[in-house]
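Board work, copied verbatim: PRA1 family protein
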Amino acid sequence: MRGGYNYDAFMSGTAAAETPGGSRFRSLASFAPLRPWRELFAHPSSYSLPHSLADLVSRLRLKLGIFRMNYALAMLFILFLSLLWHPTSMIVFLLVFVAWFFLYFFRDGPLVVFSRIVDDRVVLVALSVVTVVCLVLTHVWLNVLISCLIGSAIVALHAAFRVNDDLFLNEDEAAESGLLSFAGGSGGSGNLPPRVSPKTGSSVVGVNL
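↓ predict structure ↓
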């Protein structure tokens, strides 16, 4: 739970509700909540070398989407450590972090301005630019540069080596990434007709792989 915000409740509510555009995935695109840190620091078996350039790009896009808030918090922590011996810059950083806290980390949903949803990425970029500019004005541009390079390298390495297999939020996100395909009304040659499970009595759809 984060400031009265329950991650599981948000995800279950998102999966159950349709957005005005008819896409349940759109709300996730505009607001990527803080993921549990255990997903970030997973078992070593959850890491592997990318099999191809396409696999690398796929991993980077997925991780930068769903771990966006975690990555931002990690980079801010690295930046914070670089300012420990610069009290003036530290004060400026803490003041700017208040904006980060209320506009990005502490929100219960997408940021809405004048009845319009502001994309999470826009908020992230705007706050990042403000942070860098304010700190550069305190003459710690080298600290900022080194921190950004270190943070970016860590994020890129994690996103590249963390496998995608167990990271989908729901079927809609998996379908958005192209891992699931749904047959149309006419049916497909690879799909088997529904059958009833003898144990549960529920309908089960068979798929030929």
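The first helix runs from residue 7 to 16.
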